[in-house]
Specification:
single chain, mainly alpha, globular, disordered N terminus, disordered C terminus
Length: 352
């Protein structure tokens, strides 16, 4: 189906399911309940009924189901269509007073992923510049951490945006100190490889150890891949230095994620056993037995010129100020949706 026809199509087809619910709101509640329990086959018909009445959260959770590569209902063209509709209709909801705002930001971030990679099934060509625009809006207007992380990676690569290594590193430092496991893992890998910064195996192992402890289920595999690579490559001297730093940094920068597991097995350890090439077991909870060294700053380098600074940069383990993004941060204050996105006024600001 052509992309234009796909976007013009109705988001859902309710069929006979509509008669099972007294109202769209009831269908929404039952759909979200089934989604939360991981019962997608029950959630989809209910959410379709609610989405046909333009209930925002029904559209969002349908898109989440269709974009889930781990489920049996994956349909990326449908997910893209719904995320694009959300971007068109809700990109300028109030980021502070509208409870839809964080979900719109996640939709924009997911949409950026599709646009960046392309979607051959519907003839969507990769477009890094357009993807960066979506991420920029989610990162700045909605202050979304995942969008900020993805934007930082694009800035380091110069993909879709002008290359800005200092700014990308600044984003990673802010997010790492706020407990974003993905940013911590990515930054640890940069320290380990000495890319964009001085090689520092101690910081690399300490930071990835914090990240792997706090990795969300959906991000666990790639974060553990980085952990395994760094741990297996680190000499014993580095491992001994790191133990106390991990305890210190985890208490300050660790952030346990809310469960994102819908199969009822969130409490079970589903991690595979990992080993180094020499057969050594890779511990997925790095020990804290080493003597704690003096406090070491999480990020060893100053922020780029003109960027907001923490109160005591590099002095100890000081966290950056919370107002960096919304005020005088690296991109300035929040702004209206950038031109050229096809984002339009949502009109109805009611929460549905």
């Amino acid at each position: 189906m052509a992309l234009a026809a796909l976007l013009a199509a109705a988001p859902v087809s309710t069929g006979a399911a509509a008669g099972k619910f007294r109202s769209a709101e009831e269908a929404l509640q039952q759909g979200i309940g089934a989604y939360s329990g991981g019962y997608y086959e029950m959630a989809i018909p209910a959410l379709e009924v609610a989405a046909a009445e333009n209930l925002f959260f029904a559209q969002y959770y349908l898109a989440r189901i269709y974009s889930d590569n781990q489920g049996s209902h994956t349909d990326h063209p449908k997910a893209y269509m719904i995320f694009q509709r959300i971007a068109n209709d809700f990109a300028d909801v109030d980021p502070d007073d509208d409870r839809r705002a964080p979900f719109v930001a996640r939709a924009l971030t997911a949409l950026a992923g599709y646009v960046r990679r392309g979607l051959p099934e519907i003839g969507l060509e990769p477009n890094a510049e357009r993807a960066a625009d979506y991420l920029h809006h989610a990162a700045i207007f909605f202050n979304d951490e995942d969008a900020q992380f993805e934007l930082a990676k694009l800035q380091l690569k110069g993909e879709g945006v002008p290359s800005d290594v200092a700014q990308g590193k600044h984003w990673l430092s802010i997010l790492s100190q706020k407990g974003h496991a993905g940013a911590q893992a990515f930054l640890a890998d940069l320290y380990w490889r000495g890319m964009h910064m001085q090689k520092d195996p101690v910081r690399a192992l300490a930071l990835i150890s914090v990240a792997v402890k706090n990795a969300p289920t959906a991000e666990r595999v790639w974060i553990e891949d980085i952990y395994q690579n760094i741990y297996c490559g680190a000499p014993q001297g580095v491992r001994k230095q790191v133990g106390g730093m991990v305890a210190e940094w985890d208490s300050r920068y660790g952030r346990r994620p809310q469960t994102d597991d819908h199969n009822g097995l969130a409490s079970l350890d589903q991690r595979a056993t990992r080993t180094c090439e020499n057969g050594e077991l890779v511990p997925l909870d790095f020990g804290n037995g080493a003597q704690r060294p003096a406090a070491t700053p999480l990020i060893a380098e100053p922020p780029p010129a003109g960027a907001a600074r923490p109160a005591a940069w590099g002095a100890s383990l000081g966290i950056m100020g919370a107002g960096v993004i919304g005020g005088s941060g690296p991109f300035g204050s929040r702004a209206a949706p950038p031109s050229g996105l096809g984002l339009r006024d949502a009109g109805d600001s009611s929460v549905r």
